[in-house]
Amino acid sequence: MTYKHFLFDLDGTLTDPAIGITNSILYAMEKFGIPKVEREKLYCFIGPPLLDMFQSVFGVTKEEAQTLLTLYREYFSTKGLYENTLYDGIKETLAALKKQGAILCLATSKPEGFAKEILRHFELYDYFDFIGGSTMEETRTKKEDVIAYVLEEAKLPKENTLMVGDRIYDIEGAKMHALPCAAVLYGYGDREELKEADYLLDKFEELLNI
Q1: Domain co-membership, 152 together with 75
Q2: Residue-wise pLDDT tens digits, 107-117
Q3: What distance in Å separates the CA atoms of residue 184 and residue 204, rounded to the nearest whole number?
Q4: Do 169 and 97 belong to one domain?
Q5: Active site residue 202
Q6: Can you give the pTM of this predicted structure?
Q7: Given 82, 106, 129, which residue is the final one in a domain?
Q8: Catalytic, out of 9, 11, 145, 166
Q9: How far apart, in whole angstroms, are the C-alpha atoms of residue 36 and residue 30?
Q10: How far is CA 39 from CA 6, 46, 56, 186, in A?
C-alpha cells in the first residue's frame, strides 16, 4: 500500500510536550489545592481529553474539572505550549513526504489554536494542508471525532489515508473510520498498548519506507 494522505497526532508524535503539559497541570493543582505529585505520574495526561483525565485521576466533579482546565490554560497558553521539543527527523520527513506529493493533516485532541501556535513555533505550519483539533469549549476532543472533522473539512478519501500517532486513542480513532494506523514507539504509548497498530515505527522517518 502506498499512502497519499496522512493524519498526524501532535503530542508524543511530532513533539514531546511533557514538560509543558505537566508544568501546566502542576500549576492547576497548586492553585486548586491538590497535593503535588511526581511529574512522571502526570504523563498519563498526554494524549487523552483533559476534562476526562482531571475527573478520573483526581476524582473531581465535571464542574471542578472545568475549573482545573481553566487554571491549566492560564499557564499553558503563555508558557506551557513553548515548553516543548521537536522529535528527531520530523521536519525532514514531513518535507520528504510533501516532495512526494502527499497531503498532510494534523488531527489532535489539543485545542486547534494551541496546535497551530505550536506548529508555527517549530516552523512546521507550512507543511500541513489542514490543521484539525478540538475546540476551546472542549468539544470534538475524542480522537474519532477529530478524525471525522479532518476527513470532512480536508475532503480526504479514506482510501490511501494513514493515521500516525503514539497512543491507543489514535489507533481506536482510526479504526472507527476504517483507517490503518502507524504508531510511533518513541512517544507515550508502549509496545503492548500499541500492538493493534498496522505499523510500529521506532523512528518517524520510517514512514518513508511504508
Answers
A1: no
A2: 999 999 999 99
A3: 7
A4: yes
A5: no
A6: 0.93
A7: 82
A8: 9
A9: 7
A10: 32, 12, 17, 18
